[in-house]
Amino acid sequence: MAEIVNLRRARKQKARKTKDEAAEANRVKHGVAKPARDLAKARAEKAARDIEAHKLTDEHNDDA
After folding, report:
1. From CA 23, how far away is CA 16, in angstroms rounded?
2. How many domains does the chain divide into?
């Protein structure tokens, strides 16, 4: 016997799949959201400042 298919459910499932594919294409096309980019940039800048603050300068090495 053939499997009984609820046409309404199948139509909704197909629409969801199409919508998900379009959303994925847009995510790839438009990249990362601006707040996420800003947060990543701020974290990278802070890490660079922290590393720079802990570096020894040449002034300290000349005496040795």
Report:
1. 10
2. 1
